[in-house]
Specification:
The protein has 6 helices and no strands. With 173 residues, it is an all-alpha fold. α1 packs parallel to α6, α3 crosses α4 and α4 runs antiparallel to α5. The protein is elongated, with a radius of gyration of 19 Å. The model has no long low-confidence stretch (mean pLDDT 91).
Length: 173
Amino acid sequence: MDLALLCITPLLASLALFLRYADDVPAVGEVRDLLQTVVSMLAELPMWGLALLAAGAGLGEEVFFRALLQNGGALVAAQKAGLAAPLADQVGLWSASLLFGLAHAVTPLYFLWATFAGALFGWEYLSTGSLGAAVTTHFLYDWLAFVYLVNDWKRNELSSGQAALRDEDKTEF
């Protein structure tokens, strides 16, 4: 579990920073604006629905990117290129991480962030040898991020709705 916390912490911290500086940094604001559409749909789900969505993403993406692509990349690097196991593992890790980034590349900045996230999940998988560990970490991150994003969105919707009511009150005589 210590490794999971080590992987989740920079991801959650970067999410909080993204939201904090979205108005100040155009590239971050672009990511936030794209996420708002998705988050508004997520806000309709109950908590267990967010957990189920996170579990599906964690399981599906980790099986595909770690068990299939990362292992496959390492195998090809070892057998076809003749690389030693530690180097072949790194080839598998970084090729799967780049593909993970590309699969999530809604903006150039989000590509970089998702590549980093993929590298963390892949590093955990490589370090523990457990696909379950990477699945669990991915699930926990997604679920916590979904909850955080939905709560932030609802808070912003509530405050902008209250601001609109205040503005409306000012125009009435």
